[in-house]
TrEMBL record:
Gene3D superfamilies linked: FAD/NAD(P)-binding domain
InterPro entries linked to this entry: FAD-bd (IPR002938), FAD/NAD-bd_sf (IPR036188), Ubi_Hdrlase_CS (IPR018168), UbiH/COQ6_monooxygenase (IPR051205)
Organism this protein belongs to: Blomia tropicalis (Mite)
Domain FAD-binding: 101-387
Single GO cellular component term: mitochondrion
Superkingdom as given in the UniProt entry: Eukaryota
GO MF terms, alphabetically ordered: FAD binding
Taxon lineage: Eukaryota, Metazoa, Ecdysozoa, Arthropoda, Chelicerata
A Pfam short name: FAD_binding_3
SUPFAM superfamilies to which the protein is assigned, alphabetical: FAD/NAD(P)-binding domain (SSF51905)
Protein name listed in UniProt: FAD-binding domain-containing protein
């Protein structure tokens, strides 16, 4: 098997989602446009999203489908060039990617609401159950999503979807709905972020905007009332804001690859995960059609129930793993360079910076919840801003009332997401600890409690 490349993989959690009064750079003095060079170009937007990916593109697609948000001026900045996809042709043998995600029922509903699930479900593999064990395969926990309201008494545990398929579906949906005031700029990098104010009174600094400087175009700056960071765990938006972030390395290595297997279960609809007590390697197998996505390594036939028939050449990739843990904060402000003004800026208590997805939280990849948490962020933020607009408020205006309505929406977004994130982080760590220290024979006790197992699966599938 060919080892392709290493991926840095630190898992972390931002202490906050937003900050008090985006204080990226705060100045007491008025900034007059006449003081700027005449060739300087300023472009203003209601919302700027820094970073694309699945979470960023999903949020933009949600904006385009909402009646009030779709009327606002929005820009998404993506550092990577515009993706190029091969034409859709019938394949005699399907080619699988080695980067996949487990999509929960809540994420499926979100994809359905923005109009991309019909495109994804053709390639999505439904997972009906999950088999988890430690030392002995028969002393295990078999998870199923039992529900008396379904036709067969069971709902899917999750869906396995290739990341490349999701990116393509979202890209096509974004380009399908053409709205002039909503734009995407590919191949663009933000190099600096500042906070500016356009009025002379320090007391009224709540009308300040955030200014973004571009790496390859020094003569153009972008301004916005709301900056959203979807720029990954090395987020520039988070770094420039007052949102603390903590992470630590758990000294584990993950290897992901595509395997062809013979499964003892019909339709290859059961996922497998093993926790090893005397090793830093855990294993997970998630099915994609008649293939299995494996992560990480050291899989032997006598250790796993499926029989490995083949490994797709060049399909392996390795990356170190790390954890971050703290109470999350998702909204806030940009750090002030003038430290004398920082406390004054915060005292106004207005918010205009948001982080979501990997910029705000990272969890262990074997938990299968990282992308789902990011999609939950996108769905919740779109809902809160749309609700604010539909109630007659203008969160993107230049008045104190506008700033207050925006801050209220962001605080509600943060409260709702923390209520999901903290229990989820605790559950992930609890499962890791339980599987590492609980005797294998004790797992059969949990396996004999179907109601408890069903509630665990439902919680994992909730938004």
């Amino acid at each position: 098997m060919l080892l392709l490349r290493f991926y840095p993989r630190n898992l972390g959690l931002s202490k906050r989602y937003f900050s008090h009064k985006s204080a990226i750079l705060y100045s007491q003095n008025k900034i007059n446009d006449t003081d700027l060079q005449t060739e300087q170009i300023h472009s203003s937007y209601d919302i700027i999203i820094n970073g694309g990916g699945i979470v960023g593109f999903s949020f933009l697609a949600a904006i385009k489908t909402l009646p009030y948000l779709s009327t606002r001026k929005v820009l998404l900045i993506e550092q990577q060039p515009e993706p190029k996809f091969p034409p859709k042709i019938a394949q005699t043998k399907r080619i699988f990617g080695n980067r996949v995600s487990a999509i929960t029922e809540a994420s499926k509903q979100f994809f359905d609401s923005i109009g991309v699930w019909d495109e994804l479900k053709r390639d999505a593999k439904q997972v009906d159950a999950m088999h988890v064990w430690t030392d002995h395969y028969r002393n295990a926990v078999h998870f199923e999503n039992l529900d008396s309201t379904s036709s067969n008494g069971m709902w899917p545990t999750c869906y396995i979807v290739e990341n490349s398929k999701m990116i393509r579906a979202l890209y096509e949906k974004i380009n399908e709905i053409m709205i002039d005031q909503i734009q995407v700029r590919y191949g663009t990098t933000v190099c600096d972020i500042e906070q500016i104010t356009s009025i002379p009174s320090f007391r009224d600094d709540q009308t300040s905007e955030i200014e973004l400087k571009l790496k390859d175009n020094e003569n153009e700056t972008l301004r916005t009332k709301l900056l959203i960071g979807c720029d990954g765990f090395k987020s520039l938006v988070r770094t420039k804001s007052d949102l603390p972030y903590y992470n630590f390395d758990i000294n584990q290595m993950g290897i992901v690859g595509t395997l062809e297997i013979t499964s003892p279960y019909p339709n290859n609809s059961v996922a497998f995960q093993r926790f090893q007590r005397k090793s830093t390697i855990d294993r997970a197998l998630s099915e994609i059609g008649n293939k299995i996505q494996s992560q990480p390594s050291n899989l032997f036939q006598h250790q796993t129930p499926p029989i490995v028939n083949a490994t797709i050449a060049g399909s392996r990739a390795a990356f170190p793993l790390g954890f971050g843990t703290t109470a999350p904060r998702l909204v806030g402000t940009i750090q002030a360079r003038n430290f004398m003004n920082r406390d004054i800026a915060r005292s106004q208590n207005f918010l205009n910076t948001v982080i979501m997805g990997d910029a705000a939280h990272r969890v262990h990849p074997l938990a299968g919840q990282g992308l789902n948490l990011g999609l939950g962020d996108a769905a919740e933020l779109a809902y809160q801003i749309e609700t604010c607009l539909s109630n007659g408020f203008n969160p993107f205006g230049f008045t104190a009332d506008s700033s207050e309505s925006l801050s209220d929406s962001l605080r509600q977004f943060e409260r709702n997401r923390i209520a999901k994130l903290i229990p989820m982080m605790g559950a992930i760590q609890s499962v890791q600890t339980m599987m590492s220290w609980t005797p294998a024979s004790a797992l059969s006790i949990l396996d004999s409690l179907p109601w408890v197992k069903t509630q665990m699966v439902k919680f994992a599938n909730s938004r």
